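Before the break, one more example. Copy the sequence into your notebook; we will annotate it together after we see the structure.
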Amino acid sequence: MAEVYNWQLGRKMAYPYEESHPKWQFAFVFNINRCIACQTCTMACKSTWTFSKGQEFMWWNNVETKPYGGYPQFWDMKGLKLLEDANPGKQVWDVTKKDGNKRPYGVYEGTTVFEGALKRYGPEGHVRALGYIPTDEEWRSPNIYEDTSATPAEGVPEKWYGPDAASVLPEHRTWFFYLQRLCNHCTYPACLAACPRKAIYKRPEDGIVLIDQERCRGYRKCVEACPYKKPMFRGTTRVSEKCIACYPRIEGTDPHITPDGVPIETRCMTACVGRIRIQGLVRIDEKTGDWAEDRYNPIYYLVKVAKVGLPLYPQFGTEPNGYYIPPRWAPRPYLRQMFGPGVDEAIEKYVAPDRELLAVLQLVRSSQKIIFRYEIKEGPKVFETIDRATGKKWEMYNDTVIGYDKQGAEIIRQTVEEPTYVRPDVHFNSI
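Here is what the structure looks like once it is written out:
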């Protein structure tokens, strides 16, 4: 295997192919704190891409309830167990080695799905990535354990409720949250690494991971290797399919949707009524393979500057390009396992956002067009308070944030305080 640099892990890791990176990378940030699990995103994707025969079980986008829900069932628990079996008791982080954007979370000292695979041998030698193929039963219930909360009586470890597990509302010992999932279009995809036909590839223009339907022979190695279980095998055509990131919209080449030719967000993003999603394209540095500095790109800001957007299970080693603002009410040890050691800093910044973060958060789902750059115009102070927990003063300003598309045209202008409109009492249906 070759060695590639994974900035989420803060170190080099083993990967079957030499390091190669696209010009731009499709990425997104989801704010878990605002999701209401209405499944509008799920149905938008379903009605667009997976409504045909053989796709009945396919939910490229899904929203599952944690800690017990999952689609396919147990996908995360089984993936973590594979890592633990390959390297018992050593899936830890050294947070003392944080170094800016190069190692934002420290150094992961455990094993990845690629490194663990070197210890597993099959008939043709070692496998490319640790994995398993879900059973039919595990694919049958996309909403299993929906709204099922965790309590100590249900076997949740007591350590999740100790002093280290303090949340904003520590008295709420019963908890759950919604996790929104689609293909992460990883920097180092396990599906791509495992495919013996080389039918899976990353597009050089935007980093979207696709399956060549003509080359695929349905070996299901991608289904087995992906730790997030987002490639899915279609029995009617005998090939695998997965989220394509609605690439005609990303390209801006659909004349019916983007007549002006600018990139527009995917179907699941634009359908979000809870305004939890923001999606974009980040520039990639050709020399380092890392994100090129783009201070006023909202995705870059949320992930690299404010550091409130965290990767999902970074320890798998695929360097996913889907990021999450973790829920502030859930036990911290559980969240650290899911999003890495950056959880405490992310929640602290989200609970009491600074002036810039508060303004940038207003851009979330504010426009269907992808925002490539933002600008903030300062406004008056409208509120201040004292945080009872920290004793620190927090101030709120009614700033205006302006978003621009790829061509530099203004597409959205939003104030921190949303305006109130009073309809005149002149209509029959006025209340």
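Residues 177 and 363 are 23 Å apart (CA to CA). The first strand starts at residue 2 and ends at 6. Try to locate both features in your own notes.
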